[in-house]
């Protein structure tokens, strides 16, 4: 990887800064030859595995920004070598034995790729261990997904956990009996993530979001492939995208600061009273925006549900309850709960700090006075 | 010989198909969902208002449909369906319409059509000049990756998503559909951008599906006036040049050359792929039916839940048509939601009290929690349950919808197929299923344009949401159509005001259902019976690449993330 660092003719810092500052389109178009040259040398393949999830990450990548993911991958000459939703092959068994060759059979194709090694592994969806440690709540090609993951992980030069399910367990972790975790975390715990659980130790980068913004993946990929050390936060997320709270640059921030807060949907002001968790969610949605830069959750009047956070969704439900209401922390002790949710950013902060964070900056209490 | 497709790719992951062949024909078929997430269990004890955001994460392709069904279930529990403002319903229509069109394009061009560019067809079609021409088109258009159609579709998907984002904040996973209405307030500027997007989307869909005719021209002659016009049009096109410019858009090309009845029997053409012989059912009212719940609100304030005067509430009507061909000659039956039950006989669940079937709202089933109980060769072989309408397994999706609305092109095509020289082709087949999806994509373009040009309004004074709050002890259901078919959410609120039961029966739960307590097969299983490994029968080596089976299963556009559901009592 070392010689790649000079590939794109950019220092690593400059690369990161550039990647963070512009959308994937602008970045990839202006740097595509460099990135492609770097990747060509490394002969990189992308192996994309899907576990227990909703397919939304892939759907988001296709719905994506500009360019959408397939064109973008093509642009940076990255070969999507395995993706069960998009590939030509399928798993075929005749009388129980794998049939044909890797040109037709996806299972054979996967085995060959894993044997060769040296790919970037994208994991979408959580990794269920249940029931009874069998992993059979999620199977493919007569193999539990957890086994497929364990086979593929060691040969990966880098693993990208795409989406909140793969990063932290997400929605799929909510069902206890499934015993599902993310790749390197389960919620906020590294000890309980699949890597620790199965004794694996590759480099993992988390690109959370339910679903994630396609830019986050594309730029992280470009970054990784160019040999950059992607700078990540305590939850393994690239700081470039997950460094500041949604609340910081929210399009409704002006309304918030003037204490204009809605108590019903579609009224046009700040969504704080409707349960917006933008104060607790660290992502650049307001500046990057979604679907070709058109809009984002709070802009369209939908409260942020902190879909990029390790404790999503449990810690943020009920979705329409105000941040400082005790209820949102569920059974968790209020002080600890606050720490878990906002993590390293506000270590030691109790619920009052959350409240200060959320409404204190405007210097006055909500005019309409916490009805909810 | 046993052929097992595991995983069947190019759909949402986790589908396994296993068939037993005798003398080259499928004699038994099993369809298994292999991923279990248990979303409904997660919803127990949660706030009912959270359900739309939560359940939209059942499926990344169908997020706005789940949100809509869930919001409807809550609105029905609050007896508020009549009060949801018109402007909210228009926005829901537009968001669902875009999502629906996107889903159809993804399925057609990233899922189904690439199988038509399988090299097996090159080897069969090269025996005639027309065949060579046809193969060239199939390969250039549908090969994945690299085919023109695939890259056009990706461009269109991006445009649609951009449009969805403008109204929905983001796509997928838009937060704007909430109980009582929607959250977004499009500006006049937003509406102009949307109009621009629609032009762009229509241009791609028109070029792809029709080639020469405009969407309006095609719908006027076929949808409004019947299938005969389409057949005549196909016959008038040049057979020396099968390009889009000569009128051979994907729809005409498919309609002509993927039908043995049209291409070979009627016109004696030397090149065809017999998808109209593939994936049909025995015509028996007890073995199969076609079910739809109705979708897209009429543009006015409020809507009625399906049990009341639903006929007037939806643009695409709800209905049920039993399987026999003769039934399409009279109107569809009125939908009776009370007839919907689910079985777990062949599914990895234990029924609480040994009953064979339950209405969704009364269900108390327990997931197997023993690893040994999860195998795919026993009596229980799927995480998908077996829903039945009365006692009948149902196909749901574009074909069922167009049958239940007695859409002219589809009904006339089915009549022609079913009545062909008394030999008869199956009226539901890979062919009609796919044709219905294409026709529906065109209809969606027309509807979307209407809503955006005529009904979508900007301005601050417009009401787009009413306040709803589900009462303890209430219950409700939301039945709508998603691209893949009938989607139902059922919800009960406990005395503590939290969710005490939640059930989803999704389109693929119907289509990919395993056997029920009466040992009746689900639609995909039934459609596989009697199939061979290719549309031309058995071809040496085809057991390792049974394209015929791919066509049948993919023609249903299965989506396993949506299909698997359970509740633990
Ligand atoms: S509370 Fe939410 S809506 Fe209000 S300014 Fe912050 S992020 Fe935006
Ligand atoms: S605004 Fe909040 S809920 Fe929306 S995508 Fe960003 S982090 Fe997720």
TrEMBL record, chain A:
Provide the GO MF annotations for this entry: 3 iron, 4 sulfur cluster binding; 4 iron, 4 sulfur cluster binding; electron transfer activity; ferredoxin hydrogenase activity; metal ion binding
Q: Among the entry's GO cellular component annotations, what is one? A: membrane
> Per UniProt, where does [4Fe-4S] cluster 2 bind?
247, 250, 270, 276
PROSITE patterns for this protein: TAT
Q: Please, which domain of life does this record's source organism belong to?
A: Archaea
Positions with a binding annotation for [4Fe-4S] cluster 1: 54, 57, 165, 210
One Pfam assignment: Oxidored_q6
InterPro entries (alphabetical): Cytochrome-c3_hydrogenase_C, NADH_UbQ_OxRdtase-like_20kDa, NiFe-Hase_small_C_sf, NiFe_Hase_small_N_sf, NiFe_hydrogenase_ssu, TAT_signal
Q: List keywords of the entry alphabetically.
A: 3Fe-4S, 4Fe-4S, Iron, Iron-sulfur, Metal-binding, Oxidoreductase, Signal
Q: Where is the Cytochrome-c3 hydrogenase C-terminal domain?
A: 242-319
Compartment annotation: Cell envelope
Chain positions recorded as [3Fe-4S] cluster binding sites: 285, 304, 307
Q: Does the keyword Cell inner membrane apply?
A: no
Q: Please name the GO terms of the biological process aspect recorded for this protein, alphabetically.
A: anaerobic respiration
Is this entry keyworded Cytoplasm? no
Assigned EC number: 1.12.2.-
Q: Where is the NADH:ubiquinone oxidoreductase-like 20kDa subunit domain?
A: 54-223
Name the protein family: Belongs to the [NiFe]/[NiFeSe] hydrogenase small subunit family.
NCBIfam families per record: hydA
Specify the protein name. Answer: Methanophenazine-reducing NiFe hydrogenase, small subunit
Q: Which organism is it from?
A: Methanocella conradii (strain DSM 24694 / JCM 17849 / CGMCC 1.5162 / HZ254)
The uppermost taxa in this organism's lineage are:
Archaea, Methanobacteriati, Methanobacteriota, Stenosarchaea group, Methanomicrobia
TrEMBL record, chain B:
Major enzyme class: oxidoreductase
SUPFAM superfamilies according to UniProt: HydB/Nqo4-like
- Keyword GTP-binding assigned to the entry: answer is no
Record-listed Ni(2+) binding positions:
59, 559
Q: In which residues is Fe cation bound? A: 562
* Cell compartment(s), UniProt: Cell envelope
Any one GO MF annotation of this record: nickel cation binding
| Cofactor(s) listed | Fe cation; Ni(2+)
The alphabetical list of record keywords is:
Iron, Magnesium, Metal-binding, Nickel, Oxidoreductase
Positions of Mg(2+) binding: 40, 62, 504, 565
Stored PROSITE patterns: NI_HGENASE_L_1, NI_HGENASE_L_2
Any keyword Iron? Answer: yes
Return the InterPro entries for the record.
Answer: Ni-dep_hyd_lsu, Ni-dep_hyd_lsu_Ni_BS, NiFe-Hase_large, NiFe/NiFeSe_hydrgnase_LSU
Q: What is its EC number?
A: 1.12.2.-
- Membership in a protein family: Belongs to the [NiFe]/[NiFeSe] hydrogenase large subunit family.
Protein name, per record: Methanophenazine-reducing NiFe hydrogenase, large subunit
State the organism of origin: Methanocella conradii (strain DSM 24694 / JCM 17849 / CGMCC 1.5162 / HZ254)
């Amino acid at each position: 990887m070392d010689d790649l660092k000079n590939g794109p003719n950019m220092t690593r810092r400059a690369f990161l800064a550039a990647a963070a500052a512009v959308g994937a389109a602008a970045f990839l178009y202006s740097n595509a030859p460099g990135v492609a040259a770097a990747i060509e040398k490394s002969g990189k393949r992308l192996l994309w595995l899907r576990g227990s999830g909703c397919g939304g990450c892939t759907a988001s990548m296709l719905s994506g920004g500009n360019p959408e993911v397939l064109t973008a991958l093509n642009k940076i000459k990255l070969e999507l070598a395995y993706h069960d939703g998009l590939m030509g092959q399928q798993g075929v068994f005749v009388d129980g034995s794998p049939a044909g060759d890797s040109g037709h059979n996806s299972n054979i194709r996967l085995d060959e790729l894993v044997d060769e090694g040296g790919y970037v592994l994208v994991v979408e969806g959580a990794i269920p261990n249940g029931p009874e440690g069998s992993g059979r709540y999620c199977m493919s090609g007569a193999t539990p997904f957890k086994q497929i993951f364990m086979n593929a992980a060691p040969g990966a030069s880098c693993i990208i956990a795409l989406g909140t399910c793969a990063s932290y367990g997400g929605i799929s972790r909510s069902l206890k009996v499934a015993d599902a975790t993310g790749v390197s975390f389960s919620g906020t715990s590294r000890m309980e993530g699949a890597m620790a659980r199965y004794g694996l130790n590759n480099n993992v980068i988390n690109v959370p979001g339910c679903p994630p913004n396609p830019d986050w993946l594309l730029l992280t990929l470009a970054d990784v492939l160019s040999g950059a050390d992607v700078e990540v936060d305590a939850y393994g997320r690239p700081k470039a995208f997950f460094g500041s709270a949604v609340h910081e640059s929210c399009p409704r921030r002006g309304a918030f600061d003037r204490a204009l807060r809605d108590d019903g949907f579609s009224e046009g002001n700040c969504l704080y009273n409707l349960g917006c968790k933008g104060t607790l969610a660290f992502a650049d949605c307001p500046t990057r925006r979604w679907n070709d830069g058109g809009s984002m959750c709070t802009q369209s009047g939908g409260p942020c549900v902190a879909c990029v956070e390790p404790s999503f969704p449990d810690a943020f439900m009920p979705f329409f309850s105000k941040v400082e209401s005790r209820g949102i922390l569920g059974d968790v002790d209020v002080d600890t709960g606050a720490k878990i949710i906002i993590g390293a950013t506000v270590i030691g902060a109790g619920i009052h700090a959350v409240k200060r964070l959320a409404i204190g900056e405007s210097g006055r209490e909500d005019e309409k006075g916490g009805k909810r | 010989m046993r052929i097992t497709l595991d995983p069947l790719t190019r759909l949402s992951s986790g589908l396994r198909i296993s068939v037993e062949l005798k003398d080259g024909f499928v004699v038994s078929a099993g369809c298994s969902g292999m991923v279990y997430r248990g979303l409904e269990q997660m919803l127990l004890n949660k706030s009912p208002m959270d359900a739309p955001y939560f359940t939209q994460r059942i499926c990344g392709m169908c997020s706005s449909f789940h949100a809509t069904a869930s919001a409807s279930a809550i609105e029905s529990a609050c007896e508020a369906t009549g009060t949801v403002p018109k402007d909210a319903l228009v926005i829901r229509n537009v968001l669902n319409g875009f999502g629906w069109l996107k889903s159809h394009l993804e399925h057609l061009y990233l899922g189904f059509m690439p199988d038509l560019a399988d090299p097996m067809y090159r080897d069969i079609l090269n025996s005639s000049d027309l065949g060579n021409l046809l193969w060239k088109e199939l390969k250039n258009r549908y090969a994945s990756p690299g085919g023109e159609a695939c890259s056009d579709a990706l461009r269109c998907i991006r445009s649609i998503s951009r449009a969805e984002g403008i109204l929905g904040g983001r796509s997928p996973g838009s937060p704007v559909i909430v109980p009582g209405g929607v959250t977004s307030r499009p500006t006049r500027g937003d509406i102009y951008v949307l109009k621009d997007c629609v032009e762009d989307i229509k241009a791609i869909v028109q070029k792809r599906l029709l080639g020469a005719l405009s969407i309006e021209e095609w719908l006027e002659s076929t949808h409004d006036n019947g299938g005969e016009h389409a057949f005549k049009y196909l016959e008038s096109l040049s057979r020396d040049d099968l390009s889009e410019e000569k009128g051979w858009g994907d729809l005409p090309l498919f309609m002509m050359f993927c039908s043995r009845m049209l291409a070979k029997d009627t016109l004696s053409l030397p090149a065809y792929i017999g998808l109209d012989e593939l994936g049909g059912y025995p015509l028996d009212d007890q073995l199969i039916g076609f079910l739809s719940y109705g979708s897209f609100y009429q543009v006015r304030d409020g809507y009625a839940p399906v049990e009341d005067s639903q006929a007037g509430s939806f643009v695409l009507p709800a209905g049920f048509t039993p399987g026999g061909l003769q039934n399409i000659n009279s109107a569809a039956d009125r939908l009776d939601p009370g007839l919907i039950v689910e079985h777990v006989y062949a599914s990895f669940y234990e029924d609480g009290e040994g009953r064979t079937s339950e209405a969704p709202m009364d269900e108390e089933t327990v997931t197997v929690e023993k690893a040994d109980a999860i195998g795919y060769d026993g009596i229980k072989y799927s995480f998908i349950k077996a829903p039945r309408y009365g006692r009948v397994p149902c196909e749901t999706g574009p074909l069922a919808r167009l049958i239940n609305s007695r859409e002219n092109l589809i009904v006339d095509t089915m009549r022609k197929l079913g009545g062909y020289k008394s030999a008869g082709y199956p009226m539901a087949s890979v062919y009609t299923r796919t044709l219905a999806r294409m026709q529906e994509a065109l209809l969606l373009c027309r509807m979307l344009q209407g809503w955006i040009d005529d009904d979508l309004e900007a301005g601050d004074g417009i009401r787009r949401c009413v306040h709803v709050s589900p009462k303890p002890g209430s219950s409700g259901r939301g039945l709508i159509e998603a691209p893949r078919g009938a989607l139902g959410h059922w919800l009960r609120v406990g005395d503590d005001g939290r969710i005490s039961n939640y059930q989803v029966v999704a389109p693929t739960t119907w289509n990919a259902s395993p056997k029920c307590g009466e040992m009746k097969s689900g639609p995909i299983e039934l459609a596989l019976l009697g199939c061979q490994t290719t549309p031309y029968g058995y071809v040496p080596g085809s057991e390792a690449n049974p394209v015929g089976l791919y066509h049948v299963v993919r023609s249903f556009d299965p989506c396993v993330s949506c299909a698997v559901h359970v509740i633990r009592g």
